[in-house]
Design a protein that fits this description.
This protein has 941 residues and is mainly alpha-helical. The chain contains 48 helices and 5 strands. The radius of gyration is 33 Å and the shape is globular. TPR repeats lie at residues 759-792.
């Protein structure tokens, strides 16, 4: 379905031309040389002693360029790639296959741990849905309370619900898988984890202590006859009458004391003053011996009973106290009050309940010194371990939150050290030691970084060799770093990151060749593009530099690449283009600091804003329509950012913001904008729509539909109907469901909205009409969408013409889209379906050039090669893209090719890798079964 959240990446005009200031002429280059000379003079004094720019109402462009240049121009020796802080395999397909094989025969109590390993593997991939899916599966298959508590908190953190106004950390979201109450129930029941939660939306507030009120143990013994009591415990001046048999039933130690050959067994009165329990507490123990309940006692009395239960091994009483106290934990105050008691008495459920609150309040809870001390210190880890709550899982979660907040902090280092101490198996040690190396590298503690990277390599993490090389390089051992990477390239199947890393340790042609090879093997690496672009700038070829950086921005936008392009545009005095890029950059990272970490991006926006034509909100809407029509998503993003600056807190604009970011594959930034839209919503029905999109984007489709229906019940709106239609269209594909989706979209179109959204709805409606074979209705919808400048409708219209056997018309429609769009790899890809093989190959080459992440061109070329009986070349074509984009369909296709060539071993490996990504993929399961059967037959013969 052609949806508003499609995966296509549309980027800014690759030529770099704008409607105001062009790049042409040599003036820009001469200006840049002048700036470079000025910067060199400034550097001799010290780049660090810069003066903050003063904002003026009328900023002269030349003065602005020179002032910005004083911060230091881009230089090749000031940029370098980061060592990724995740598990990275030199043979990713084999790693996936190995994990799937081990999961296939894994005992049920170990399955949750296997999903955690998958989480660690998928953490480094660009698709967050794979990580979240594994996290959910890990929670569904969790057996013990500890794992349930941590995984539930992690799922909640992954959605960043703490950013939603009015949502408490302990609010129940309605899903059993994340409910804090269900997390405290031990046992293995994966089916129940997906059920809706039946507990109240708001937790019951409990008072932890009830002052000096009379203890509920001040009771009369009711129907109990005085003769039933055959002994007493004396505490101070008080005597607590008890039944010997009842007290003895509490534990084996009590039974031995009261019935075996001890003095107490022959006494009616036993002095119990020195056992650390009050008379009230002992009365409660006597009552528990009869009722087996602690519900009527005050919390402080229950704490006494817990201590008594520990001293005398009263397991039943300890469990009752543990569970009751755990039910009282509802916020940070009660958690901090009770966790010390829980740790002291090793109360497993109580500590779990307190731990749950602390984890759900991350990262803020780590700012509490007591919490920080508990998690960061070895003593704190040991105390948690004694209560059954120190694990690799726990520290893996906490370290991830700490690294996101501040990678260089002492807290992060200490947490990673605890993570290493909790590591038991190879992959856990690899991850912990490698991340410690990355953190030390960021802290510029290169000797320690090298030590930890070496430990990771010893544990089996080959990628950490790149960390060792980088640490050696930073310590002045450049040749040793080069030798290490050279040896790695010789010993392993070469990868793009290997050549990228080696390029740091050589010069001239050798460096250029390594960077070219890195891009050829992995075109998604941004450093080679950045280095080549900056080199071109140093050679006074700014237009070429912009073209080079556009190559990566075209399919993978990132703040650092947008910053570079903004720099280049400033040098050419194209301030409007630079302002666009800085605005787009801020949507990805609102706290990004530009110019070598010296100037806040929003400050630069203010400086650049005074050099361009000022636009009001109406002008911005017109500009947004133009950008949207020309399929310029980065330009659209910048316009919406401008509109938000004029009208901050406008929920509708924030929602549009999130849709654009999703189209650009910036999922984290998109969700942040969507959460802000929800917070700024001025009506209940609007808020429900945004909550519905949040639910959909985090994998809860039923909840998204429910939110849409609730919104419609309050007020009929375009967005509510559209949300429900969109989710249903992806959930059900039968004809009856399609007809219902059509009705929903028709209802949406009857509601007020702007042309941008109605164009999308018309396009979606047309797509459903195609699915139910109503082609003429589809054509009408696409034509109406084009009338309101929804240019992407050309693609849908082309599909209809193709279905009507009008291939020439289909081809022409895609040509119109290519001509109108500033940059459109998907249009070239789609047009290839409507022409002969030679022209198709040409269009697909262009699609790959513009966006190497699109998989269809590789699959098509591989299929053509197979048709021409060039099996090795076909597999090589797929292998090339799988190396940097391990895609389910690519792996399945390569497995099928191996199967047709009679290679069951390779078929099985690729099937297992594909099933690791999606264990329910029916075609792969069928192929896998056949390949295993064939392999068994070959072995038996």
């Amino acid at each position: 379905m052609e949806g508003c959240k499609g995966p296509q990446v549309y980027a800014f005009n690759p030529s770099g031309k704008t409607t105001t200031n062009g790049y042409g002429g040599g003036g820009g280059g001469e200006k840049f040389l002048h700036l470079q000379e000025r910067v060199n003079a400034v550097r001799s004094k010290s780049n660090r002693n810069y003066q903050p720019l003063q904002l003026k109402d009328n900023v002269k462009p030349v003065v602005l360029s020179e002032d910005l240049a004083s911060y230091g121009l881009p230089q090749t020796d000031l940029i370098e790639p980061h060592i990724e802080s995740c598990l990275k395999s030199v043979n990713f397909v084999e790693t996936l296959a190995d994990v799937y094989r081990r999961m296939d025969g894994c005992p049920q109590f170990e399955i949750s741990g296997m999903y955690l390993e998958q989480c660690a593997i998928f953490r480094g991939l660009s698709d967050p849905k794979l990580f979240r899916k594994c996290l959910k599966s890990g929670r569904e298959h969790a057996v013990d309370v500890h794992s349930k508590v941590v995984l539930s908190a992690w799922l909640r953190f992954d959605r960043r619900e703490d950013e939603l106004i009015g949502v408490s950390a302990m609010d129940c979201c309605g899903r059993s898988i994340e409910c804090w109450r269900s997390s405290l129930v031990s046992g293995y029941n994966p089916e129940s984890a997906t059920d809706p939660c039946t507990c109240h939306q708001r937790p019951v507030q409990n008072e932890v202590f009830v002052g000096d009120e009379e203890c509920s143990t001040s009771f009369s013994h009711g129907d109990e006859e005085e003769d039933d009591y055959d002994m007493s415990f004396c505490i101070g001046d008080e005597e607590i009458r008890c039944r010997r048999f009842n007290i003895a039933s509490l534990s084996r130690p009590f039974e031995a004391m009261l019935y075996d050959d001890f003095m107490e067994s022959r006494r009616e009165k036993i002095n119990f003053t020195q056992n650390g329990i009050s008379a009230k507490g002992m009365k409660a123990a006597e009552m528990f011996s009869r009722t087996r309940s602690v519900e009527s006692f005050d919390p402080d009395i229950v704490l006494e009973l817990l201590s008594l239960a520990n001293k005398f091994c009263c397991n039943e009483m300890k469990f009752a106290c543990d569970s009751y106290l755990a039910s009282l934990v509802s916020d940070m105050d009660s958690a901090m009050l009770l966790i010390e008691h829980g740790l002291e008495e090793t109360a497993y459920v109580l500590v779990a309940a307190c731990l749950q609150v602390l984890l759900r309040e991350l990262p803020n809870s780590m700012h509490n010194p007591n919490v920080s001390r508990l998690f960061c210190s070895s003593e704190g880890k040991d105390r948690l371990a004694s209560a059954g709550h120190a694990s690799f899982l726990l520290y893996y979660f906490i370290t991830q939150t700490a690294m996101e907040e501040d990678m260089k902090s002492n807290t992060t280092v200490m947490l990673l050290e605890r993570l290493g101490e909790c590591s038991n198996v190879g992959w856990q040690k690899q991850l912990a030691f490698h991340q410690l190396g990355c953190v030390m590298l960021e802290r510029k503690e290169y000797k320690d970084a090298q030590k930890w990277f070496e430990a990771a390599v010893e544990a089996g993490h080959v990628y950490s060799l790149a960390g060792i090389a980088r640490a050696k390089y930073k310590r002045g051992h450049m040749y040793m770093a080069y030798k290490l990477m050279n040896s790695l390239i010789s010993d392993c199947t070469p990868s793009g990151w290997m050549y990228q890393e080696r390029s740091l340790y050589c010069h001239g042609k050798e460096k250029t060749m390594d960077l070219s090879t890195a891009t050829e093997l992995d075109p998604t690496l941004s450093y080679p593009y950045k280095y080549r672009a900056v080199t071109m700038v140093e050679e006074n070829r700014i237009e070429s530099a912009i073209s080079e950086i556009n190559k990566i921005i075209g399919f993978k936008i990132s703040p650092d690449c947008l910053e570079l392009r903004a720099w280049f545009l400033i040098a050419l005095e194209d301030y409007e283009g630079a302002l666009r890029d800085v605005r787009a950059l801020l949507t990805l990272d609102p706290n990004y600091v530009m110019l070598h970490g010296k100037l806040q991006s929003d400050k630069l926006v203010e400086l650049l804003r005074h050099t361009v034509q000022q636009r009001n909100q109406a002008d911005c809407w017109m500009q947004l329509y133009d950008r949207w029509s020309s399929v310029d998503d980065i330009g659209s993003l910048a316009v919406v950012h401008h509109m938000l600056a004029n009208d901050p807190g406008k929920s509708l604009l924030l929602f549009r913001h999130s849709l654009l970011l999703l189209r650009l594959n910036s999922h984290g930034a998109a969700m942040r904008s969507l959460r802000e839209a929800r917070n700024q919503a001025t009506s209940e029905h609007e808020r429900l729509v945004y909550e519905g999109w949040i639910s959909y984007d985090t994998g809860y489709r039923e909840e998204a539909i429910s939110k849409a229906e609730e919104s419609i019940s309050i007020q009929r709106s375009f967005e509510a109907f559209f949300l429900k239609a969109y989710v249903l269209s992806e959930t059900n594909s039968d004809s009856e469901a399609s007809l219902y989706v059509i009705k929903l979209l028709e209802e949406a179109l009857r509601c007020p909205s702007d042309g941008l959204r109605k164009g999308q709805a018309l396009s979606n409606l047309a797509s459903i009409y195609v699915d139910v074979d109503k082609l003429d209705n589809a054509i009408d919808c696409y034509m109406n969408a084009l009338t309101i400048k929804h240019t992407r409708a050309h693609q849908g219209l082309a599909r209809v013409y193709h279905l009507k056997n009008q291939r020439k018309s289909a081809y022409d429609e895609m040509t119109k889209l290519i001509e109108k769009a500033s940059y459109n790899a998907s249009a070239y890809e789609k047009r290839s379906e409507y022409c002969d093989r030679e022209m198709a190959q040409s269009d697909l080459r262009m699609a790959t050039k513009l966006d190497p992440l699109r998989t269809y061109p590789y699959r098509y070329r591989a299929a053509v090669l197979m048709d021409d009986h060039k099996e090795s070349e076909a597999i090589s074509e797929l292998t090339k893209v799988i190396a940097f984009k391990p895609d389910l369909h690519l792996l399945h296709l390569r497995a099928a090719f191996h199967d047709s060539m009679g290679d069951p071993i390779s078929t099985i490996r690729d099937c297992e890798a594909a099933l690791c990504l999606d264990s329910s993929h029916a075609d792969t399961l069928e192929l896998y079964s056949k390949a295993r059967q064939r392999s068994n037959e070959q072995q038996s013969t």
